[in-house]
Design a protein that fits this description.
The protein is mostly helical and 196 residues long. The chain has a domain of 132 residues. It has 4 helices and no strands. Helix 2 runs antiparallel to helix 3 and helix 3 packs antiparallel against helix 4. The longest helix has 68 residues. The protein is rod-shaped.
Length: 196
């Protein structure tokens, strides 16, 4: 009987020992031992690499956006300069017609409208450049991108208006030839000949 009581006491002590160890086992991390520490280290390294790749991708994305918009702005500036050159040439033609005594008030008004649209486009380009820098450095680029699109559309509209006004001015002075202030066509009456 004594052995039976001793066995029961030992069994009770072992059960008590196991029961008290269970909460401690539940608190230990699931990755124990040397392999678990390496696994955690690898996960941390992967996370760091992911962050580095994300940062590099964000920088590349910024460079691509900046390069795209700089090319677009350069094209718009070139278009502005071409329109300015055209307006200068038309003004020179109008001055020559004025010296001949032709009526060029409508053509002058169209050139003035074209220059006003041209100036608005030039101001819009400066505004687009500042928005571009805001876009690249922003945490929420989507909203700024929409504003930038509106600005660029306005620039394109201004350039189209300037071009249309210059076309109107040219059509109004087309009939007025230097040396022929009456508005004749100035076409020659020669006939074409063929060579055998």
């Amino acid at each position: 009987m004594r052995t039976r009581t001793t066995r029961i006491a030992r069994l009770g002590a072992a059960t008590l020992l196991l029961a008290s160890a269970l909460p401690v086992l539940a608190q230990t991390p699931t990755t124990t031992g040397p392999g678990g520490a390496r696994r955690e280290e690898r996960q941390e390294n992967r996370q760091e690499r992911r962050e580095e790749v994300r940062a590099k991708l964000a920088e590349v994305r910024k460079q691509n956006v900046r390069r795209h918009f700089n090319r677009m702005i350069e094209r718009l500036q070139n278009r502005v300069e071409r329109l300015k050159t055209l307006a200068d040439r038309i003004d020179a033609r109008i001055r020559a017609l004025d010296q001949q005594g032709a009526d060029t008030t409508e053509a002058k008004a169209d050139v003035a409208k074209a220059r006003a649209s041209w100036q608005e486009a030039k101001d819009g380009i400066a505004q687009a450049k500042t928005k571009l820098e805001e876009l690249v450095e922003s945490e929420t680029p989507r909203a700024i991108f929409e504003e930038l699109k509106v600005i660029v559309r306005g620039i394109v509209t201004d350039l189209k208006d300037a071009h249309a006004n210059l076309v109107k001015a040219v059509t109004k002075i087309r009939g007025l030839r230097v040396g022929n202030p009456t508005g004749g066509t100035g076409a020659s009456t020669s006939t074409a000949t063929t060579t055998p």
